[in-house]
Amino acid sequence: MRQGLGIATMSSTTTRELQGADWVAPDCAGMNFYDCDPGLQYGVSLYLPEDLRAVVEPKMRELGRLGGARLDQLARTADRHPPVLHLSVITVSCNIRIILQR
After folding, report:
1. How many helices (H) and strands (E) does the chain have?
2. The pTM is what?
3. Which member of 32, 33, 41, 80 lies 3.0 to 4.6 Å from 67 by CB, making a disulfide possible if both were Cys?
4. b/e 54-73 (16+ beta carbons within 10 angstroms → b)
């Protein structure tokens, strides 16, 4: 998909307007979000001791891989298909009896 001034060219005959996630820079799609974020890596190395960092970093890499792959795909799909609120009316009737006792 080529992107121009608000128009995405899907093929030589099909075009559509860009929406939501289409405006996100395509350079991070499919990448490991942890590996491509030096600020996050620096924060992990700054605040975690070496032994804990050895445990946490593999988990961060796995989360970064998921974020750059499946979660990124799902976010783009959600941006193209926003939620729709369907209003419905619920009628509740109740009979209340109050019994006073002396």
Report:
1. 3, 3
2. 0.53
3. 33
4. eeeeeebeeebbebbeeebe
Q: Which amino acid is at 74?
A: L
Which one-letter DSSP state was computed for residue 20? G
Across the beta sheet with 15-17, the strand order is: 2-3, 7-9, 15-17
Q: Where are the domains of the chain?
A: 25-85
Please provide residue 63's backbone torsions phi and psi, each rounded to the nearest 5 degrees: -65, -40
Q: What are the structure tokens assigned to 52, written together? A: 């804990």
Take residue 26 and report the two structure tokens written for it. 């395509």
Phi and psi at 9, nearest 5°, equal -95, 110
Supply 71's token pair.
């979660």
Q: Note the pLDDT tens digit of each residue in 47-80.
A: 999 999 999 999 999 999 998 898 888 888 988 9
Tokens of 57: 């970093």
